[in-house]
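INTERNAL AUDIT FORM
Audit reference: QA-55
Scope: verify that the stored structure record matches its stored sequence.
Auditor: D.O.
Record contents follow.
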Amino acid sequence: MAAGSDPVRAASDGYGEGGYGEGPYGGDGGFGVATGDATSVDATSATLGGELVGLDRADSAECYFEWRSVGAASWNTRATQTLSATGSFSADVGDLSSGTDYEYRAAVTASDDDTDTGGTASFTTDSGNSAPTVDSYSASEAGSPNPHLEITADWSVSDADGDLGTVAVVVSDSSGTVVDSASTAVSGGSASGSAEFEIKHVAGQTFDVTVTVTDAAGNGDSRTRSVTE
């Protein structure tokens, strides 16, 4: 779950970062921004909080956030709003990876071009537990003039968590006995493929062809089609 932090004021001496941070020219009434908590954290998104704690002589300030996965070389920037008085602000960030550590900081650019950056805080996205889905599935028989059942099963699957694991296709007879199967390893957020089977000497019989997708957490989804020789 979220690992927010207490708001952190960017510290500076005199004309430190931000121009008028804490020090003889700023104090609590000077120009500055504080990083707040990360809230509403789930597997792929979070809401970042910050506070404009002083404008000094500026009329307004553009408040925003910088964020990145821990260890990344560069920051992403998320614009928020223009404030003409001190107060809190927030921004939603999305397209995050599940189970990942992120760091972020509030930042501000004043109308007189002063800038300031708050302290760095962190959060961890949820590991995620969304089940994968079978998006499309078809099972067809070749229709060749012989007593054999020639099956082609085409499938496509997806998982919002991006942790696909395997896709299994199972052919069962009318009693539920498995007569053939195939398994494919998959990964990421989406995948597609096909499986082919030949069941010999089964003229006039009907078989169920079931596709099952399973993710790394063990969640799954299935679809079944019936095919007759």
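Auditor finding: record pair retrieved intact. Confidence is low (pLDDT under 50) at residues 1-28.
Action required: none
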